[in-house]
Amino acid sequence: MRPRLRWSDLPESIRLRVQHRLGAEVSWTIPCTGGFSPSTAEIVAADTGRRLFVKAVRAEDNPDSPRMNRAEAHALAHIPSSAPVPAFVDAFTDGDWFVLVTEVGPGQTPAQPWTGDDLDHVLDALDHLQSVCTPNPVPDLPRAADALAEDFLGFSRIAEDRPPGLDPWILEHLRDLELAEERGLAAIDGETLCHLDVRADNLLIAPGGGVSVVDWAHACRGPRWLDALLFLGTVEDRHGELAVSARIDELMTHHGLPRRTGTDVLCAFLGFFVDAARRPDPESVPGLGAHRARYAEWLVPLIRLRRRTEMRA
């Protein structure tokens, strides 16, 4: 993975403005790991104990990053303070740079592999987040169905251009998976603020179980259950110890939906990963294809299990 930019890479004018927000000179920094953007992802701290999180990037580092960071700043500026999200502090342009500053969320990225307790903490936090963010408080956000319209039709592209080495189960059930992804895309309408990229890299868990949801570049409007469902689709549970499929069923039942709706949306999610994994990595984001292939590998057994169970129901 390409090394991230650091605090020392930023122009003095940016560092001075951030220090003004900090209220003191920066005495030390902590780089944050995870994710794929070359943006800085760094905690800056003063001897007073005050800390801020700084994300800064130029288009030359990654053409998409400034747009994504602006979208995140827009979302954070409107998310209620009662949500489990680090508070917005500042966002500004300085020459070619776009800079986003927030408070520091408590905790650390969750240890991997997942534990049942940490999954419970995250699902509780997402339920609370989307309770306080229904109706959606952020203006001018796209609908989830529009934001995912291309990504969630991956199996239709695979059917037209089948990659070599396609999983035999996917190949055997390709037409059914095409129909499922179409149903899944049609199901994700709603008026709740959705993060759309909840995964381990974008979560902080404090020792007491408190959770912060970070990195809001893909915020959109969708159903209350969407983030929790897609999050569970990123959890490896090859042997069923974490009961991910049962947790998905509980989520669907809680929101008054048939279990198959969850499976259909996960089929669309799988189609995105399988289709996207075969594309060349962007030069600025090496390793992205391998990341997507890994999620696809985890999702196939989950969906196979759910489809077998639903056929017997």
UniProtKB/TrEMBL annotation:
Tagged with keyword Transferase: yes
SUPFAM superfamilies reported for this sequence: Protein kinase-like (PK-like) (SSF56112)
Residues spanning the membrane: none
A Pfam family that the UniProt record links to this protein: APH
Coiled coil regions in record: none
InterPro entries: Aminoglycoside_PTrfase (IPR002575), Kinase-like_dom_sf (IPR011009)
One example GO MF annotation: transferase activity
Keywords: Transferase
Domain Aminoglycoside phosphotransferase, first and last residues per copy: 31-233
Protein name, per record: Aminoglycoside phosphotransferase
Species name: Brachybacterium phenoliresistens
The organism's taxonomic lineage, starting at the top: Bacteria, Bacillati, Actinomycetota, Actinomycetes, Micrococcales
